[in-house]
Amino acid sequence: MKLVVDVGNSRIKWKHDGMPAAVAADSLQQLSLQWQDLKNVEIRGASGGCVRGRSLADKIDELARAYFDKRIDWQFSVSEACGVRNAYKQPGNLGVDRWAALIAAHEKLPGQACIVVDAGTAITVDLLDASGLHLGGVILPGAKSMLDTLNRAEQLFADTNRNLHEFAQSVQPCTDNTQDAVLTGIVFAVQGGVKAVIEQQAGQINAKIETLPIILTGGDSTMLKLDSLQTQQVPDLVLEGYRVLMENRK
C-alpha cells in the first residue's frame, strides 16, 4: 500500500490506495490513533505535503516511522514535474497543495486546459493550459476565514462553527436579522468571487467558460454555485497529486 498525507491549514488528511476516501485528523494525537489501526497494513511508500511548517512535518514523519517503518517523502513545489510547469518566478513559493492539485488535474485531463478550484481555509483558483503550463492563480479568503474575521470585529456569534454548507443550500438575497445577513454575504462573496475569477481566467486563454473543465476540491467546494459550468468534484485531488509525484519520483 502507498500512503499519502496532506497537512493543510486546518486538518491533516490521509489515505492509502486500499481506501475509497481520505480520512481527516484535527490533531497529531488523533492522527496517531488513526494510524494505530493500520499496524498490520504494509505501507510500501509514503508521500505528502505540509503547509504548516517543518516542525509538524517532522512529527508526522516520526509517526510514520513508528507505525510503518517508512519516512514520508515530503513534496515541494518546483519549476516542472509530471508535465506541469510552474508559473511562479520563484517556484518554491507556490503552495505545495496547489502544486499537487495541478499535478493531479493534469493527469486527469491530459492535453486539456482546466481551472482548479480548491475551497478550504483559503480558496485558490488556478489556470492550467492544454500543454500543462500553469498560468497562475488567485487566492481568496475562505468562508470560515471571513466569518472568523468579521466576528472578531463585531462579536455577532457566540460560536462560528455554524454549518455554512447547509446555510448555503437555502440562502436568500434578503434577510431579516444581522446574523443571517452576515452569513448570506459570506456565501455570496465566495460564490461570486470564484465565478468572477473563473470568467477572467477563461478569457486569458480565449476559452468558452461553458466548456472549460473546472475541477473542484476542498471542504467548501459544495458551497459554490457553478451549475451552468462543466465542473467535476474531486475531493481527494491534492492527495492524488502527491501520489502522482511519488510514482514519478526520479
What is the topology?
Layout: E1 2-7, E2 12-16, E3 23-25, H1 28-36, E4 45-50, H2 54-68, E5 73-74, E6 80-81, E7 84-85, H3 96-108, E8 114-119, E9 122-128, E10 134-141, H4 143-154, H5 164-169, H6 178-204, E11 214-217, E12 231-233, H7 237-247
Parallel strand pairs: 1-4, 4-5, 8-11, 11-12
Antiparallel strand pairs: 1-2, 2-3, 6-7, 8-9, 9-10
Helix pairs in contact: 1-2, 3-7, 4-6
Verbal overview:
There is one protein chain. Helices cover 37% and strands 22% of the residues. It is α/β, with parallel strands linked by helices and 250 residues long. The chain folds into two domains: 2-74, ATPase, nucleotide binding domain (Nucleotidyltransferase, domain 5); 80-142 and 187-247, Nucleotidyltransferase, domain 5 (2-Layer Sandwich), CATH 3.30.420. The strands form three sheets. Strands 3-2-1-4-5 form a five-stranded mixed β-sheet, with helices on both faces. It is globular, with a radius of gyration of 19 Å. The two termini are 20 Å apart. The mean pLDDT is 93.
> What is the number of independent domains?
2
CATH overall fold name of the largest domain? Nucleotidyltransferase, domain 5
User: Can you summarize the main beta sheet?
Assistant: 5 strands, mixed
Please report the first level of CATH classification, the CATH class of the largest domain.
Alpha Beta
**Helical element count?**
7
Q: Find the structural class using helix and strand composition.
A: alpha/beta
N- to C-terminal separation? Answer: 20 Å
Order of helices and strands: EEEHEHEEEHEEEHHHEEH
Shape: globular
Strand order within the widest sheet? 3-2-1-4-5
The name of the CATH superfamily of the largest domain reads: ATPase, nucleotide binding domain
Beta-strand level of the residues, as a percent range? 15-25%
- Low-pLDDT regions: none
**What's the mean pLDDT score?**
93
Count of strand segments = 12
Please name the CATH architecture of the largest domain: 2-Layer Sandwich
Rg computed from alpha carbons, rounded to a whole number of angstroms: 19 Å
Helix content: 25-40%
